[in-house]
Amino acid sequence: xxxxxxxxxxxxxxxxxxxxxxxxxxxxxxxxxxxxxxxxxxxxxxxxxxxxxxxxxxxxxxxxxxxxxx
Length: 70
Known about the structure:
Blueprint: H1 4-12, H2 17-24, H3 28-36, H4 43-53, H5 57-60
Helix pairs in contact: 2-3
């Protein structure tokens, strides 16, 4: 599954893939595969990124357009 919002959130924060990969403790190439949908993102990484960007996991997954629970 391709997660366009992963890339959008990263770019909106002026971050590089390498920055997020370092935060997650993975290689940049692995993170790139997450963004392009070539590799499934583990739940623990999805949750960490949602917390980092202060959005819900449903928003990141494209299930809603509401960024937060409020």
